[in-house]
Amino acid sequence: MPRLEDLTEIARQGHLNFPVFEHSDAPFVSLNKPLSEAKLALVTTAGLHIREDDPFTSGDQTFRVIPSNTHPRDIVQSHTSIGFDRTAFMRDVNISFPIDRLHELVERGVLGGLSENFYSFMGALRNPKHIQEETGPEVARLLLAEKVDGVLLTPT
Amino acid sequence: MPTSAIVLIKEQAQRVKPPRALFVPFPFGFALGKPDDSEFQHKVLAATLDLFGSDSAPVLAEFPDEADAPAQLLQAGLAHADLSKEVDLDPVDEVTALRGYFERWVEDHDGRTGVGISGVPQRRWRGLMKYLQAYANGDSVTFEDMPAGMPEQRFLKLAADDIKAFYMEARMCQRPEQQNNDLQSWFWTETATGAMLAKIAARLSESDDELLKGAAFGIAR
């Protein structure tokens, strides 16, 4: 987003005081192979799902599975936040969910491959405890079961 | 499992400390920078994927400022609205008038559309718009195509999102140069449906039912 100093005072304070999970350090896990041999997964908080799936509801901390071979016309956004410009996603899903770009990187040999499934949560949650304790670890287990080497995380 | 993230608020990333993160100076809704610009998106992706090469964590890198980054969305679409303004056109007729642009947008985007999350097929929109008009006027109405078991406030929100997506896509086809703030301004001040949704939101916000009251906020933006 624009730097916080460019926003109105109320928006700036809203973001500075948003109740995030604060940490003093970060876990380090190295990618144990070159990207050109790695299987990458995409996980987004853009509130996306395939057209037939259930829309996200307010405060929703569940996730949706989006197979990585899904055509962009079958991906829709039902994020309940009013704080972002939806027209960018209407123009191009890759603006938040770079599914076409990742396939291009595989074709170019930059990436080794993609996981069978990508995943979407919905962000802008004030207390994502259920994601932290339940649905987040569940997605991590699904990614590990697919032998994913690395995960790209995108917001909206 | 190693992760690399694109983040839109640097100050929050500094508090959360994800292992690898690229701060991008773009508005919400524009994580990869520019829609329909695959070259630019690849630059952002490359910068994010490069972080997998880091040998410690956390790493918070910054994508360079781009002079032509899109303008930030003015939040609160309803702030544009003038509720006293009379709009001549009927919402049903307005949808009919815009349908050609909408269909061309979908055709130009390989079948993609954001419309469809309410579950109401577009052939039933005449009935949907009639229902919403009656709702806006304070009538006690039901809509027979409302998905079974769905609470009214949730249906109203999803239907409003579908309708807004239809209008935005039609308008982007009609006026490709317009950005979000122009689109928001047009929808809320110049269209009959914008006025109708604003009236629905006003009705909801006056409700004694907290769930209905809460739905007003999302509908009018």
What does this structure look like?
The complex is a heterodimer of chains A (156) and B (221). Chain A is of the alpha/beta class and 156 residues long. Chain A has one domain (33-154). Chain A is built from 4 helices and 7 strands; from the N terminus they run αββββααββαβ. In chain A, the strands form 2 sheets. In chain A, strands 1, 3, 5, 6 and 7 form a 5-stranded mixed beta sheet that branches. A two-stranded antiparallel ribbon of chain A has the order 2-4. Chain A is globular. Chain B is mostly helical and 221 residues long. Chain B has helices spanning 10-16, 38-50, 91-108, 125-136, 152-174, 180-190, 192-205, 210-219; strands spanning 3-7, 20-23, 59-62. In chain B, strand 2 (20-23), helix 2 (38-50) and strand 3 (59-62) form a beta-alpha-beta unit. In chain B, helix 4 packs across helix 7 (192-205), helix 5 runs parallel beside helix 8 (210-219) and helix 7 packs antiparallel against helix 8. At the A-B interface, helix 1, helix 2, helix 3, helix 4 and strand 7 of A face strand 1, helix 1, helix 2, helix 5 and helix 8 of B. Strand 7 of chain A pairs parallel with strand 1 (3-7) of chain B, so a sheet runs across the interface.
Features:
A: 156 residues, alpha/beta, five-stranded mixed β-sheet, two-stranded antiparallel sheet, 7 strands, 25% helix, B: 221 residues, mainly alpha, three-stranded parallel β-sheet, 49% helix, elongated
In short:
Chain A is α/β, with parallel strands linked by helices. Chain A is 25% helix and 17% strand.
Run of helices and strands of chain A: HEEEEHHEEHE
* Contiguous runs where pLDDT drops below 50 for at least 5 residues of chain A: none
Q: Enumerate the spans of chain B where pLDDT stays under 50 for 5 or more consecutive residues.
A: none
Helix content of chain B: 40-55%
Approximate shape of chain A: globular
Structural class of chain B: mainly alpha
Structural class of chain A: alpha/beta
Query: What composes the largest sheet of chain B?
Result: 3 strands, parallel
- Residue share in helix of chain A: 25-40%
For the residues shown, what is the average pLDDT of chain A? 92
> Which radius of gyration of chain B do the C-alpha atoms yield?
21 Å
